[in-house]
């Protein structure tokens, strides 16, 4: 097994009003190249924190452990360097950028990444051709290129816009943080298809979700159960079904 | 929190980012001795071969100025200005008043080239040959240390009946027009700086668009302060006759110097029935260094008179430079159904201070005004929007909409909004909206997780914040302004 993403004993905390709050408490997880892993866990288990820490959000202070990605110390890199290296986070709550034209944002991002990867930047014409093509796959209206980034987007539109960015930026590790929340079944299918078509030997993903539902469409190679800031159980896709039936209780008791 | 600390760190390291236009041109100058008295006023007038009426006008202004006091109501702090410690006249030696580009000192032309100003008409036309889309021609009047050095495209403009020339030339060639309008919109004694300008202005642009003429190209003036300790006092006068239209652009730069330089311009616009004037400024005077040393003191009076019915005057400004900005481009809506607009982006960084805004004076019925002011403060700077909307008793159905948005970057800057609203007509409607926000860590992180650097992220977010104003600028200027915004804010966020 090639070590691709290797998280060891990761500890992280955040400054809250009540004081310092530890969230990740010795989390270990490995994702080999080309595999899609799901992380499931109850609310407050630290799933979103994990995704933020991996993408480089500075509000979280890493107090222990290590993350090695493609042989590099991921935690030492700035968010934009992680993006260039191939990390992509699909946000649970995509951020609004008032006045910033979506097409302009997407092109700036694509070219920033291409530049960092020493690829030639795309001119406006080439970019529009590419983005229109990708949007067709995601059943997105070209009209969305003209709007301000995520401003006034419906929940489904925001998530599709995230998947669009993922497809444009061609990551080698995609982290999908509750991408299924707020999606109806049709949108869920489209989004899942957007992810599935990227699957291959050069693409790994961490799919964070509450529900089994998404995993009907994106079938993971492995499922990890997360609770209390740690991975408490790992296994095959069948775990998701077991969770759906029995809930987290059995796993929590076993871990306690 | 970690992010804030880093923000501060980046600000500190990058506050040293250089002012790209800070070079000085080595050119022989005729400079009047320092100080200001009646003799200097006479000297300026005689250097310009002005007629007696002009000299008399200046002397009256000077006498008035001596009785006036510098205003201090603005939220600006700066050391006392010694008006006797500046030169009031400097002109590039060579022939006074070059008649064509060939007569202009090549050193000067190189300066403008460095600034990216398309002075050579040939160069402009050559641009058309390239693969790029043909550029819209722009006629340029270049003012170098208070003296207009070159005006391009004169012939094309003449054929359309448009007059576009240095105001010093207009005083001699078109005395009737100048006498009729000079000081009409901004009276000599309007304020301390307008009186000073009236006494000692050395050049500027004059534009006259005859009845029914749509000016065939954008008109542009570039102001460059070069000489040391020199005040720059330009005077611009634009008249649009019935049904005429003109779009006028103004750009400004100055070399980097330790001492402060004084700039006090007056701009007057007059629009007759159904005429429209669009006046755009990209102001990028030297803002001073990271310790607040040097930079231009910019005290400007700009005012437009919508004299005719349904006339329209629109001010668009992107202010990124100057150590001190004191500037309120205004509209007097005297014609029934006339429209005044003010679109502004004011950026302050380092130790810059800006007190800027507008005045919309509604005198006639059915007049309408729109104010969109975007203020961005970073570093240790301080920015104030100050605006007056006044509905006079006759302004029935007058309408105003004002929107003031402030964006703060970092935690050591300030933004203030001071709206004055006076309504003396029951049917008039005045709306005011104001917001203050910070670039959020969420927004920055979102952009950075997509591969954008701090700087790119801030540039993108700021340009988005300013979009409503930037879209009012003519195309080419808009691109320039966007770049300028990003450069001005370099290092302001981590």
Major sheet attributes of chain B: 11 strands, mixed
Query: Any idea of the CATH class of chain A?
Result: Alpha Beta
Unreliable spans of chain A are none
**Major sheet characteristics of chain A:** 6 strands, mixed
**Are there runs of chain B of 5+ residues with pLDDT below 50, and where?**
1-17, 119-135
Whole-number total of structural domains of chain A: 1
Oligomer: heterodimer
CATH architecture of chain A: 3-Layer(aba) Sandwich
Averaged pLDDT of chain A: 92
Q: Which chain pair shows the most residues in contact?
A: A-B, 35 and 26 residues
Cα shape of chain B:
globular
At CATH level 3, the topology of chain A is: Rossmann fold
| Largest beta sheet: strand ordering of chain A | 6-9-10-3-11-12
Helicity of chain A, in percent? 25-40%
User: What is the typical, i.e. mean, pLDDT of chain B?
Assistant: 81
H/I helix tally of chain A: 9
Give the termini separation of chain A.
30 Å
Q: Which structural class fits the helix and strand makeup of chain B?
A: alpha/beta
Write up what this structure looks like.
The complex is a heterodimer of chains A (256) and B (494). Chain A is α/β, with parallel strands linked by helices. Chain A has one domain: Rossmann fold (3-Layer(aba) Sandwich). In chain A, 37% of the residues lie in helices and 30% in strands. Chain A contains 9 helices and 12 strands. In chain A, strands 6-9-10-3-11-12 form a 6-stranded mixed beta sheet, with helices on both faces. In chain A, strands 2-1-4-5 form a 4-stranded antiparallel beta sheet. In chain A, strand 11 and strand 12 form a beta hairpin. In chain A, helix 2 (79-85) crosses helix 3 and helix 5 packs parallel to helix 6 (185-196). The two termini of chain A are 30 Å apart. The mean pLDDT of chain A is 92. By secondary structure, chain B is α/β, with parallel strands linked by helices. Chain B has one domain (26-440). Chain B has 13 helices and 23 strands. Chain B has helices at residues 2-14, 38-47, 52-66, 106-114, 121-129, 154-159, 167-173, 175-181, 192-200, 441-448, 454-465, 467-470, 475-488, and strands spanning 29-31, 90-92, 138-144, 147-151, 163-166, 205-209, 218-224, 235-240, 245-253, 260-263, 266-271, 276-283, 295-306, 312-319, 324-327, 330-333, 339-348, 353-362, 368-377, 382-391, 399-408, 414-423, 429-438. In chain B, strands 5, 6, 8, 10, 11, 13, 15, 16, 18, 20 and 22 form an 11-stranded mixed beta sheet that branches. Chain B has a 10-stranded mixed beta sheet with strand order 4-3-7-9-12-14-17-19-21-23. Chain B has a two-stranded antiparallel ribbon with strand order 1-2. The longest helix of chain B has 15 residues, at 52-66. Mean pLDDT of chain B is 81; it is low at 1-17 and 119-135.
């Amino acid at each position: 097994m090639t070590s691709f993403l290797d998280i060891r004993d990761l500890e992280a905390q955040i400054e809250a009003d009540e004081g310092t709050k530890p969230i990740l408490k010795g989390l270990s997880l490995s994702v080999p190249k080309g595999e899609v892993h799901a992380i499931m866990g109850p609310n407050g288990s630290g799933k979103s924190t994990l995704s933020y820490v991996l993408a480089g959000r500075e509000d979280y202070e890493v107090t222990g452990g290590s993350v090695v990605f493609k042989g590099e110390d991921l935690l030492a890199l700035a968010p934009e360097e992680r993006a260039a290296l191939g990390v992509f986070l699909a946000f649970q709550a995509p951020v609004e950028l008032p006045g910033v034209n979506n097409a302009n944002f997407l092109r700036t991002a694509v070219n920033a990444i291409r530049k960092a990867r020493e690829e030639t930047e795309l001119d406006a014409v080439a970019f529009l051709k590419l983005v229109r093509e990708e949007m067709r796959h995601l059943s997105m209206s070209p009209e969305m290129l003209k709007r301000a980034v995520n401003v006034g987007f419906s929940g489904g539109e925001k998530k599709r816009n995230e998947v669009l960015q993922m497809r444009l930026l061609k990551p080698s590790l995609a982290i999908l943080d509750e991408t299924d929340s707020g999606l109806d079944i049709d949108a869920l299918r489209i989004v899942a298809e957007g992810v599935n078509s990227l699957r291959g030997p050069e693409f790994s993903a961490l799919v964070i979700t509450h529900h089994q539902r998404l995993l009907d469409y994106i079938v993971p190679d492995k499922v990890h159960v997360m609770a209390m800031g740690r991975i408490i159980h790992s296994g095959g896709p069948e775990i998701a079904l077991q969770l759906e039936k029995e809930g987290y209780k059995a796993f929590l008791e076993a871990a306690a | 929190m970690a992010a804030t600390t880093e923000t501060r760190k980046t600000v500190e390291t990058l506050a040293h980012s250089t002012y790209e236009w800070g070079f000085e041109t080595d050119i022989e100058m005729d400079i009047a001795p320092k100080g200001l008295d009646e003799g200097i006023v006479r000297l300026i007038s005689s250097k310009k071969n002005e007629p007696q009426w002009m000299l008399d006008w200046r002397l009256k202004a000077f006498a008035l100025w001596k009785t006036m006091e510098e205003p201090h109501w603005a939220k600006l702090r700066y050391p006392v200005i010694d008006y006797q410690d500046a030169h009031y006249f400097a002109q590039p030696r060579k022939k006074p008043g070059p008649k064509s580009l060939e007569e202009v000192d090549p050193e000067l032309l190189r300066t403008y080239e460095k600034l990216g100003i398309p002075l050579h008409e040939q160069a402009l036309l050559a641009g058309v040959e390239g693969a790029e889309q043909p550029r819209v021609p722009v006629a340029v009047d270049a003012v170098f240390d208070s003296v207009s050095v070159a005006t391009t495209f004169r012939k094309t403009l003449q054929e359309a009946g448009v007059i576009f020339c240095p105001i010093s030339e207009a005083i001699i060639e078109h005395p009737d027009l100048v006498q009729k309008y000079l000081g009409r919109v901004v009276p000599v004694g309007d304020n301390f700086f307008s009186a000073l300008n009236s006494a000692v202005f050395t050049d500027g642009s004059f534009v006259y668009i005859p009845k029914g003429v749509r000016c065939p190209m954008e008109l542009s003036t570039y102001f460059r302060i070069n000489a040391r300790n020199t005040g720059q006092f330009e005077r611009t006068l634009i008249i649009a006759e019935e049904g005429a239209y003109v779009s006028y652009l103004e750009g400004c730069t100055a070399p980097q110097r330790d001492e402060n330089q004084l700039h006090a311009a007056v701009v007057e616009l007059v629009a007759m029935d159904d005429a429209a004037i669009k006046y755009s400024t990209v102001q990028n005077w030297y803002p001073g260094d990271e310790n607040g040393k040097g930079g231009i003191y910019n005290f400007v009076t700009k005012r437009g008179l919508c004299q005719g019915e349904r006339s329209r005057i629109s001010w668009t400004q992107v202010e990124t430079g100057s150590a001190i900005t004191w500037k309120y481009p205004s509209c007097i809506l005297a014609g029934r159904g006339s429209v005044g607009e003010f679109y502004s982006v004011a950026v302050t960084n380092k130790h810059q201070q800006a007190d800027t805004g507008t005045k919309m004076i509604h005198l006639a019925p059915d007049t309408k005004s729109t104010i969109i002011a975007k203020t961005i403060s970073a570093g240790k700077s301080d920015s104030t929007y100050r605006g007056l909307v006044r509905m006079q008793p006759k302004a029935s159905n007058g309408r105003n909409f004002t929107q003031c948005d402030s964006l703060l970057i970092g935690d050591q800057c300030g933004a203030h909004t001071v709206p004055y609203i006076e309504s003396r007509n029951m049917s008039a409607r005045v709306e005011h909206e104001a917001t203050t926000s910070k670039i959020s860590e969420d927004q920055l992180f979102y952009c950075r997780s997509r591969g954008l650097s701090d700087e790119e992220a801030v540039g993108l977010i700021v340009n988005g914040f300013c979009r409503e104003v930037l879209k009012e600028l003519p195309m080419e200027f808009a691109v320039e302004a966007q770049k300028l915004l990003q450069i001005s804010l370099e290092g302001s966020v981590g």
